[in-house]
Predict the 3D structure of the following.
Amino acid sequence: MKVLLTGGAGYIGSHTCVELILAGHTPVIADNFDNSCPEAIRRVEEITGVNVKSYELDVCDSEAVERMFSENDFDAVIHFAGLKAVGESCAIPLRYYRNNIDSTLTLLEAMKKHGVANFVFSSSATVYGVPERVPLVEGMPTGCTNPYGWTKLMNEQILTDAASADAGLSVVLLRYFNPIGAHESGRIGENPNGIPNNLMPYITQVAAGKLSRLGVFGNDYPTPDGTGVRDYIHVVDLAKAHVKALDYAASHKGTEVFNIGTGTGYSVLDIVNAFMRVNDLEIPYDIKPRRPGDIAECYADPSKAEKILGWKAEKTLEDMCRDSWNWQSHNKNGYDPD
Ligand code: NAD
Ligand code: UFG
């Protein structure tokens, strides 16, 4: 299939681009490089040995999107493009709503006009809000605690409504849990701007000496060791789920939603200890107060994805820790030259 990847130069998009090429698809990237750079696409080409067509454009720019659809006969769209920082979304909510919602509407309109039938959307476990219980199952109540999360839930609704009204449209909503790790080549990986918000990039930057100590946000949660529990998933496993989602979309109509996680919850200290053990490194840390907005536990029941998509995460926590460090240690400044 010829597949448009919006946000394809980003962390998850670049890994998915590699897996799509390996599976025989032809990805085309559209990215405004707001949180990425062309070098990521060049590295995807280096890994795969395949040239990747790309457009530098804002997916909210309907004229630019229309031109791109006129020039390409797409079979499917995977919509990764979006702003994703929870804290920032509380500070500048309108920018988040404009970017994350407008982009979806613009794509849906272009798809309708050009007869493109398959849409895979990057949703998030954040749509479950504060879970009543874990593991999380797709049918459980949704609700959000920040504007970023609301953009995901609103997009799920928009896409569901669009598919209800258009018998030709197929929508797959993928609710990602916590992606970490990097491609085993160490050539592509997560490249956060400034001081990382997320746990694994913070750990790798402490390991690299760029940051001095990790702060562990709370050790008084009702979890086995008191620190927050999440479902960390290797980004390559996550990327492979998109290949399965495309196959599913191409052979079904309507909307389907899937949790994309491993089903196992690890605490912050589990991650720190595994990282130190696997990479033979010390990560100095201090226990800090809880981070506002954080929940105690969040992990998936991923059995629907296994049953219906035929997808299951395969990589271990050790793989995630090793590959995260392999990427960071060989790319001290991410995609910028050392
Ligand atoms: P990322 O920031 O690395 O990638 C997003 C890409 O979209 C970037 O390359 C950015 O430049 C691009 N982009 C943003 N707005 C755009 C626009 N209007 N037009 C064109 N390009 C635009 O983020 P990621 O971690 O790869 O996340 C991909 C998707 O998955 C996002 O929608 C994110 O919300 C979602 N998601 C991520 C996580 C996570 O923890 N990384 C978890 C759940 C869901
Ligand atoms: N944590 C620390 N110290 C840090 C960073 C994080 O102790 O420096 C802890 C957090 O308190 C939490 C765990 O590590 O217990 C994971 O935190 P992350 O920030 O890595 O991930 P979150 O689960 O908070 O959020 C992520 C994405 C969201 C997404 C959510 C669910 O950032 O966008 O997963 O998919 F919505």
Observations:
- DSSP finds eleven helices and 14 strands in the chain.
- The longest strand covers residues 118-124.
